[in-house]
Structure formats: C-alpha cells, structure tokens
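thread from #wetlab-drylab

HS: before we spend reagent money on co-crystallization trials with 2-phosphoglycolic acid, can we at least see a predicted complex? here's what I'd submit
DV: go for it
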Amino acid sequence: MNPQRGVLIAGNWKMNHDLRETEQFFFGLKELAEKELNRKTIRSLFETNKLRTCIFPAALSLSQSLVHAQELPFPLSIGCQNAHWEKKGAFTGEISGPMLQEIGIQWALVGHSERRQLFGETDATVRKKAQSLLEQGFAIILCIGETKEEREAGQTQTVLSRQLTEGLPQIPTLLNEPVNGPMSEPIWDRLILAYEPVWAIGTGVTATPEQAEESHSFIRNELIRLQGETVGKAALILYGGSVTPQNFDALLACPNVDGALAGGTSLKVDSYVKLIQACIKSLHQPTLP
Ligand code: PGA
C-alpha cells in the first residue's frame, strides 16, 4: 500500500447472511470495534480518507445494513453487489441506481467474476454499468482477473489488459461532467479496481505477494496508459481471492496493493476487524491515547 493513496477494506457477502445473520454481524461488529479499535486513531484515519471500509450485503439486507452501520464507532459504507445500467424500465429482476440511491446506497460492485461466469456479464455490460453508475455519482469497485487456464497459458496480462480496455468507462468524459449524485468525491476516489484472480476466489489458494504485485503494477500502468496519470496513480487497486488475516499483511506490504475485497473473511466479525487492524498498523498512524 501507499500511505498517500490510503486503503480500503471491502467485504463481499455474496448470497450469504439473511436478515437475522446480518443483524448479528452488525451487533458483533459494534461490540468488537468498540473494544479493539482505538477511536481517535480510527477517526483520524477516516477523516483524512486514508482508511475506508465497505460491505456489500445481499440486496434484501441493504436497508437493514444501512441502519446498523450508522451505529458503528467508525464509518462503514454499504454497497450493492449488482445494479443495472438503465435507470428504469422492463428489466425483470434488476435494480437501478436511482432505486438504490433512494434508500441511501452509494457504492456498487461491478463485474465480479461470478457475475461474469454465472450470469453472462461481458466487458461490454461491465462498461455500461460502470459508466452509468459513475455518472450517477456512485463509487464503484470494478473487478477483473484471469482464470486458472488463462494464467497457465501465460495470458494473465493479455486478459487484464482486455478487461480494462473494454470494461473501463470513458473517464475523460466523466471528468468533465458535473455529477448530480450524493457523492462529491473526484472520480479517482470513486473508481476502485479489484484484481481478483478467479483461481483464488473461494478456493483457499491466494496469489503470492509477488504474483499480486506483478498484476497490480501492470494494472496501474494500464490505467495510466488508458486514463492518464491523475486517475492511474490515485486509483485504489484492491486484491481479492481467499484473503485472510493470516495472508493479508504480506499482500498489503506490496506497493500497489491498496486493500482487499474479501468474501468469506468478511462474513465473520473477528476476521473482518483483523483486516481493518492490519490496515491501521500498516498506515503507521501513531496510536493516540
Ligand atoms: P473470497 O471471495 O475472499 O471468499 O475468496 C472474494 C470475492 O469473491 O470477492
């Protein structure tokens, strides 16, 4: 990580945690955070935007999660796992940006590999979603990553380059457009990339820090090539794929790994808090009494 850019710990709950489990998670998180996290340290990190946290619950738990998040001793954003690019219309089963904003959601995951592999999302649909949601003022985490077969065939960088070239929205246009949404942050604070090698997701096999850094620095250079230095250097690139408190320190020590998108680890309060603690430690913030 780079202290200038700061870090983000995002949790993707996927199709887990019903309403009762969601409530239990947030009660547990409040209790543990009050005990384990130094209020002053964490407040100063959040105020300077050096540390951000976000959880992506299932759609039916979004409203409840928003209410519970407000009771936490630190700011936690709540985001949706998927949203349609159109604002309304005949799209059975879909949810739109304005509907999400109406209940207070400002974050969205875009192009997770499960959406791509199981629900037919392509780079083209990923781009439409990313473009539309950014225009509406959302912060998005756009996920990319190669499969095991692609890595073994030596195609990792080709795949990442294609996913970025074809999936990234038109940022120069966005930079010139006033955003009417609730978020006033500049575009590079709202466009976050997640490198998630498909072979590492939910498998217990994590990319080594060397593999992660190689891909993350490649992604950053591609971002600079495609979007220019301002966006490319400032955008956060998260690592995702079997992140645990045990392997996270070494990943976070990589200069271009700016946090995590954790699946299984984010479902449990203690392991989610450990990821936050690892970030606080690596930001070297002096602990105030
Ligand atoms: P995992 O999932 O941490 O359970 O591997 C990560 C993800 O799919 O975002």
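DV: Strands lie at 7-12, 51-56, 77-80, 107-110, 139-144, 191-195, 237-240, 259-262.
HS: ok that's useful, forwarding to the group
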